[in-house]
Specification:
Layout (H helix, E strand, L loop, with lengths): L1 H18 L29 E20 L3 E22 L4 H9 L3 H10 L6 H20 L3 H15 L6 H36 L8 H8 L2 H11 L13
Antiparallel strand pairs: 1-2
Protein name: DUF4398 domain-containing protein
Keywords: Signal
Length: 247
């Protein structure tokens, strides 16, 4: 009887334990990851150069497993995933130095000229005037390359005037005068060419023009009334000259 009683009591208990619903013991929620990167500092980059500021690299490994509490993991219920990312930051720069542009165009340091104006003096040193003349010669050469020879002629003249004031610029003055003379010849040749073409076209249009003579010159100087009187005086008498008056 005891064995039968034990079986009838334990058996329903095991049935209830295995068929009861298993409550969820934990829950995992994956939130979106937000990554930010910033840089604060300074680097020395040459003109029209580039520099590498650095980079970052990140990696993540996730795993999940499924199973029954108390019994362990189920076969094939484990999942793993990995993710990695990398990035870099670089900078490219082009420096525009307005002061250096002024030095190349004007031929002198604008800061020095500004300080001289603040001191109330207008004394121009020989070095600054020679540098300005060099800049004028460069501008004249640029004008020649662009085809503006009249501007180059005037610019050379101004540079020669400035270089002629200083003895230490004698060699530069000789070069400037030689280039100026060549430009003057080209300008004069360019101006004479249309005149030659115009005179040739006029000669081609009137090939049978009468040569100048004393009669032609006198005819141009005489008034037209005198020519008409002489022609009527030399004309022979004819009946056509008689006026017919009809009643």
């Amino acid at each position: 009887m005891k064995r039968i009683y034990f079986a009838t009591v334990v058996f329903p208990t095991l049935i209830w334990f295995t068929t009861a619903p298993v409550p969820a013991l934990s829950q995992t929620v994956q939130l979106p990851a937000i990554r930010q990167f910033w840089y604060s500092g300074g680097v020395a980059v040459p003109d029209r150069g580039s520099a590498d500021l650095g980079g970052n690299r990140s990696s993540a490994i996730t795993s999940s497993s499924r199973g029954v509490p108390g019994l362990g993991r189920l076969p094939g219920g484990t999942y793993r995933s990995a993710q990695s990312s990398s990035g870099g930051v670089s900078v490219h720069t082009t420096i525009i130095d307005l002061d250096e542009m002024d030095r190349q165009i004007l031929g002198y340091d604008p800061h020095e000229a500004r300080r001289a104006r603040q001191r109330g003096t207008t004394v121009i040193t020989a070095e600054s005037e020679i540098a300005e003349a060099k800049s004028l010669v460069r501008n004249a050469r640029r004008a020649i390359r662009e085809g503006n020879r009249s501007l180059a002629n005037d610019t050379y003249a101004l540079a020669i005037e400035k270089l002629g004031r200083h003895e230490e610029a004698a060699e530069l003055l000789a070069y400037a005068r030689a280039e100026h003379a060549r430009v003057c010849e080209e300008v004069s040749a360019a101006q004479e060419r249309p005149r030659i073409i115009a005179s040739a076209s006029v000669t081609r249009a009137n090939p049978r023009r009468a040569n100048p003579s004393v009669d032609n010159v006198a005819r141009q100087l005489r008034p037209p009334e005198l020519d008409a009187a002489q022609s009527s005086r030399r004309a022979p008498f004819s009946r056509d000259h008689v006026l017919r008056v009809e009643p």
